[in-house]
Amino acid sequence: MSTVKPSNSEGTFVIESAVRDDGSVTVREAGTTATHHVVDYADSLVREKLAARPVGTTVRLALAPADSAGKEWIATRIKPGAPLGLGP
Q: Which pLDDT tens digits describe the chain residue by residue (88 residues)?
């Protein structure tokens, strides 16, 4: 039996929790209840930028799956620009 790896996700997310000591953070797709558990980062700069944002802030992110089940994600990039029409 083959498993299908979830695709990358790019879009606007709301930061649901502060970055924890282990580096993980929960983000929610803006306008939905779908959450993503970020467990790793492409580099330390992405982690630092995300950690500097307060809970409730919207951010444009590019995520890649960290596992085949799609339960854990890697933040690969914080995209420039503010999301339009979305508040914290």
A: 334 445 678 899 999 999 999 999 999 999 999 999 999 999 999 999 999 999 999 999 999 999 888 889 999 999 987 555 544 4
Buried-exposed string 58-70: b where 16+ CB fall within 10 A, e elsewhere = bbbbbbbbbeeee
- Distance from C-alpha of 65 to C-alpha of 37, rounded to nearest angstrom: 10
**Overall residue count recorded for the chain in this entry:** 88
DSSP 87: -
Q: Which residue intervals of 1-82 are DSSP H helices?
A: 44-51
